[in-house]
Design goal:
By secondary structure, this protein is α/β, with parallel strands linked by helices. It contains 13 helices and eleven strands. The strands form three sheets. Strands 1-7-6-5-4-2-3 form a seven-stranded mixed β-sheet, with helices on both faces. A two-stranded antiparallel ribbon has the order 8-9. A two-stranded antiparallel ribbon has the order 10-11. Strand 8 and strand 9 form a beta hairpin. Helix 4 runs parallel beside helix 5, helix 4 crosses helix 8 and helix 10 runs parallel beside helix 13. It is globular and about 65 Å long. The two termini are 30 Å apart. It binds pyridoxal-5'-phosphate. The site of pyridoxal-5'-phosphate has 15 residues, from helix 4 and helix 5.
Length: 376
């Protein structure tokens, strides 16, 4: 880390420091066990995640992108989706949401976000529906639960599947019904990428659902398409949750609410203490519907703002500077779409430090630095 960084954006060693002895013990016990694929740690994690989320089933996967792909593949195998079907998806998302759709041969239909939540603008969904629409993929971006009554009503009326991309919002609860994200739609994908609110020490993911058939199909697809040993009912892939990562996640999942509370305390300080009119703060919620995976502000001169912060020791990040429809890999499919709200967001967002690496005093100091920023 560069010397002049007094307030790092994120340092994973610090994030994992409270659990370090347990993590070492867990690694040792997996190494000693001689069981390196599947096993009790994976089963225990799936059980805890399902209980925590409030779903009947959880199936571990190798990562979050695969969790999304496996959900769509499973719906295809079950005859509920097919190649060429359209899935409505927020335009302002991480590219993995879109990759999962196109990888399965379906068509993503990006819909603009709201300017306050930066999440899907559900009032625009109806207009995006065509005879080919079969599903809505919601993304609880930055940690904010995004389902609302409009979304649920439209999904029901048009008989659309609701697939949650819950990579960023583990532990959040919907204002709609106080249920946890991951239990709000028909199926949900989780990512435990190391930077997530509950992160593994490598790649890991999971699917949650109440649908027994879907859970079984995801489990088989993630294991070469096999429902029992050497019997392949699908042309599957190998995307199982690694027991070492499951063992780490079993330790960390117990601290989910505590980890989210730490982030909420930092966000609360930013909300109260940042008062620079050049910096638009995120829509604040002290409710559990926002777990502050990122604390994202917007400012017109992003580069100038970030340079100023860095000169003052504050490291920031951007999620995301290039939205999926502007990525070279989607130039043909999405490149001609006009998505001005998403483009503006991509030009102006800055993520401030909001993890265990930032103390409450640090957050106050960062707010003071931000308040003295002048754009001339
Ligand atoms: C919104 C979103 N969806 C999907 C993913 C994919 O997860 P993973 O990195 O575990 O494949 C991520 C995280 O990287 C994400 O932020």
């Amino acid at each position: 880390m560069s010397e002049n960084i007094k307030y790092p954006f994120l340092d994973l060693a610090t994030v994992n420091a409270p659990y370090i002895e347990e993590l070492h013990r867990a690694a040792g016990s997996i190494i000693d066990s001689g069981r390196y694929v599947g096993g009790p740690e994976v089963e225990a994690f799936e059980k805890s995640l399902a209980a925590d989320t409030g779903t009947a089933f959880a199936v571990g996967t190798a990562n979050g992108l695969d969790a999304l792909r496996l959900i769509i593949r499973a719906y295809i195998e079950l005859g509920r989706l097919k190649a060429g079907d359209e899935i409505i998806v927020p335009a302002n998302t991480y590219i993995a949401s879109i990759l999962a759709i196109t990888d399965c041969g379906l068509i993503p239909v990006p819909v603009e976000p709201r300017t306050d939540t930066l999440n899907l603008d559900t009032s625009l969904i109806e207009n995006a529906i065509t005879p080919a629409t079969r599903a809505i993929m919601t993304v609880h971006l930055y940690g904010r639960a995004c389902h609302d009554a409009t979304l649920m009503e439209i999904a029901k009326r048009h008989n659309l599947l609701v697939i949650e991309d819950n990579a960023q919002a583990i532990g959040a609860r919907s204002r709609l019904n106080n249920r946890r994200t991951g239990s709000l739609g028909d199926a949900a994908a989780f990512s435990f990428y190391p930077t997530k609110n509950i992160g593994a020490l490598g790649d890991a993911g999971a699917v949650t659902t109440d649908d027994a058939e879907l859970a079984a199909a995801v489990r088989a697809l993630a294991n070469y398409g096999s429902d029992r040993r050497y019997h392949n009912i699908y042309r599957g892939l190998n995307s199982r949750l690694d027991p070492l990562q499951a063992a780490f996640l079993n330790i960390k999942l117990k601290h989910l609410d505590e980890e989210n509370a730490l982030r909420a305390a930092i966000a609360d300080i930013y909300e109260k203490e940042i008062s620079n009119p050049r910096v638009i703060k995120p829509l604040y919620s002290a409710g559990g519907d926002m777990v502050w995976h990122q604390y994202v502000v917007m400012t017109e001169d992003r580069d100038g703002f970030r340079d100023y912060l860095l000169k003052n020791g504050v490291q920031t990040d951007v999620h995301y500077a290039t939205p999926p429809h502007r990525q070279p890999c989607y130039a043909d499919l999405l490149g001609k779409l006009s998505l001005p709200v998403t483009d503006t967001i991509a030009d102006q967002v800055v993520s401030l430090p909001v993890t265990r690496c930032t103390s409450e005093d640090d957050a106050r100091a960062i707010a003071r630095i931000i308040n003295s920023y002048v754009n001339d």
